[in-house]
Amino acid sequence: MSLTLMPRPGRGPALRRPGARAGRARTWLALGIAGAGLGLVPWLAYLAISLPPSPVAWHWPAAWAGLDAMEAAGLVSTGVLLLRRDARACLTAAGTAALLLADAWFDVTTAPPGSGALTSLLMALLAELPAAALCAGLAIRGLGRPPISAIAPVLSDADHMAWAAACLVDVFDTIVTCDFAAHGDELSAAAGIAPHTWHAGFAEIAPALSTGRLSLEDGFAHILQAGGAEPRPGLVAELVRRDRERLSAAAGLYDDVIPFLGRLRERGVLIALVSNCVANTRPMLSALGVSGLADSLVLSCEIGWAKPSPQIYQLALDQLGVAAPATLFVDDQPAYCAGAAVLGISAVQIARRGARSMTPAAGTAVVQSLAELDAML
User: Fold this and answer.
1) SS (H, E, C) the chain
2) pLDDT tens, position by position, for the chain (377 residues)?
3) What's the distance, CA 85 to chain centroid?
């Protein structure tokens, strides 16, 4: 039987859900700052046409309109970067704070006596100085914490890990345990072929299955024919049904998974489950009850790319709307951790007790459980 590989599939559906309360508050803060910057636009026009020329200071309207234009740009940039959870928001916040302080200073010191001085003082006290204090606070908070990519190898500092905006989590051998050998033996018995034939056939087609270029139906039919059995449509359909049902029944979650994912959600950290897998994985995750704890499921069989290809990590970042330096990746495979690190994502290898020993990728931290990583949050 010849194998017909399908083109890479398009993006699969993503399970999104609202962020935690902290995430919503951050969003409103970002929108408010950006909105304040946009609100200055009509004020700029008013200044440009209403300020009289001065015999002492040339280009007086342009000077003030230009200063407020820089403030508007700084506020909008800070808001946008906060929405994207980009660590560079602290830089624009610092610059905007300085501009607002300068504006308040020159407003008060250049105002004429009388009502003009009172108006300038009120604007400084009620608008410019509070906005400058807010931006300065954002800058201090951001500059006081390095991006997690800078400290991934030394995760013992718990304070740093609290600043991850998102966490990409592998599935098999990270949160899900499953005896694939026993599962394959059961399918081979149902197919009426030798177990070693089934396992060898599955290993041959696994790369095509995991990137969606081969369906489970066509893959199982190929294994049957290679093992000398007739790939009858009814038998193939029964194997696909049994594969899905038995995988969901045979798979289980490690004890530390639900507490770990729950702790991330409490902190407002976005979660994507990123897995190299075949088409039976989404229903399995749903049956295990972890799909609802994730903001997105990025499954290789649905998107056409598998780890360590950069496309799968980038798609996860895009679906969560986060930047790589603010993201943590957890996987049991060193090569997949290295693939994430290429994009600037901080990687942690989980080496659960009893698992096959593997040399970690350079610069990758290693933990033995999600509970150990949770303790560092």
Assistant:
1) CCCCCCCCCCCCCCCCCCCCHHHHHHHHHHHHHHHHHHHHHHHHHHHHHHCCCCCCCCCHHHHHHHHHHHHHHHHHHHHHHHHCCCCCHHHHHHHHHHHHHHHHHHHHHCCCCCHHHHHHHHHHHHHHHHHHHHHHHHHHHHHCCCCHHHCHHHCCCHHHHCCCCEEEECCECCCEECCHHHHHHHHHHHHCCCHHHHHHHHHHHHHHHHCCCCCHHHHHHHHHHHCCCCCCHHHHHHHHHHHHHHHHHHCEECCCHHHHHHHHHHCCCEEEEEECCCCCHHHHHHHHCCHHHCCEEEEHHHHCCCCCCHHHHHHHHHHHCCCHHHEEEEECCHHHHHHHHHCCCEEEEECCCCCCCCCCCCCCEEECCHHHHHCCC
2) 555 556 555 544 443 443 445 567 778 888 888 888 888 888 778 877 877 666 566 776 787 788 889 989 989 988 888 887 676 888 888 899 999 988 887 888 777 777 777 888 888 788 888 988 998 888 887 665 444 444 344 344 434 444 589 999 999 999 999 998 898 999 999 999 999 999 999 999 999 999 999 999 999 999 999 999 999 999 999 999 999 888 888 899 999 999 999 999 988 899 999 999 999 999 999 999 999 999 999 999 999 999 999 999 999 999 999 999 999 999 999 999 999 999 999 999 999 987 677 888 887 889 999 999 888 76
3) 10
| pTM, full prediction | 0.61
Cα 228 off chain centre by: 46
Of 222, 209, 205, 216, give the one whose Cα is nearest residue 239. Answer: 216
CA distance 277 to 98: 51
Q: How far apart are CA 93 and CA 163, in angstroms?
A: 18
**Length of the chain as a residue count:** 377
Distance CA 296, CA 163 (A): 20
